[in-house]
Task: inverse folding
């Protein structure tokens, strides 16, 4: 089945220790998104790639970066995680962008 | 700036009840509105999509309505079941040429037997 896969599903890191979250897709979609969802809050778009073009939201902290080495994979790098970065991180894909987005199961990040 | 609000934040009902979840948005200039379901620790599944020109959409026991001028949408769930227990989020697409979904904070629904 075509799908969006996120690894790991749970990640524990230490305050200030860099961490990388992974997303892969078998849908061959052009667009990939990263959302942050804190407890009981709305998912918030961090950035997205339209093919290789990177689009950063204005209020995304500099601490967050992303890489998309090929169509199938996209990574979220948090350079120096703080306690406030503990959240569910959702990856989504879309054929050509817009509202038609397919979400992965998410990675729950805990910062100690 | 578009803001999306969902009321109530949590709802607990007995099995079999019909229920209504509410979503409101501050800017009526939207392209469409979606309702999503999120199970605990899982990603989002799109349930219904209403285009800005439409008034409602139905899928099985779910019916979503849209009143763009008043900035409101409702999700009606008929004959609720324990399997409907999840968080329901609404999201708007601000315009046709945007990649952004603006989400509400969700309504956490529990249906008990």
Result:
């Amino acid at each position: 089945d075509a799908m969006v896969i996120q690894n790991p599903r749970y990640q524990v890191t230490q305050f200030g220790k860099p961490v990388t979250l992974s997303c892969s897709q078998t849908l061959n979609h052009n667009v990939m998104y990263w959302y942050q969802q804190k407890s009981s809050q709305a998912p918030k778009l961090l950035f997205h790639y339209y093919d290789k073009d990177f689009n950063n939201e204005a209020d995304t902290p500099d601490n967050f970066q992303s890489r998309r080495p090929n169509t199938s994979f996209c990574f979220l790098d948090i350079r120096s995680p703080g306690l406030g970065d503990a959240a569910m991180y959702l990856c989504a894909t879309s054929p050509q962008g817009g509202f038609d987005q397919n979400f992965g199961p998410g990675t729950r990040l805990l910062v100690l | 700036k578009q803001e999306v609000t969902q009321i109530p934040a949590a709802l607990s009902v007995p099995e079999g009840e019909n229920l209504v979840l509410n979503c409101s948005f501050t800017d009526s200039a939207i392209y469409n509105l979606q309702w999503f379901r999120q199970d605990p620790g899982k990603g989002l599944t799109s349930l219904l999509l209403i285009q800005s020109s439409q008034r409602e959409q139905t899928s099985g026991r779910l019916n979503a309505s849209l009143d763009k001028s008043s900035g409101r949408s409702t999700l009606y769930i008929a004959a609720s079941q324990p399997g409907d227990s999840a968080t329901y989020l609404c999201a708007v697409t601000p315009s046709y040429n945007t990649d952004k979904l603006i989400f509400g904070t969700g309504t956490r629904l529990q249906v008990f037997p």
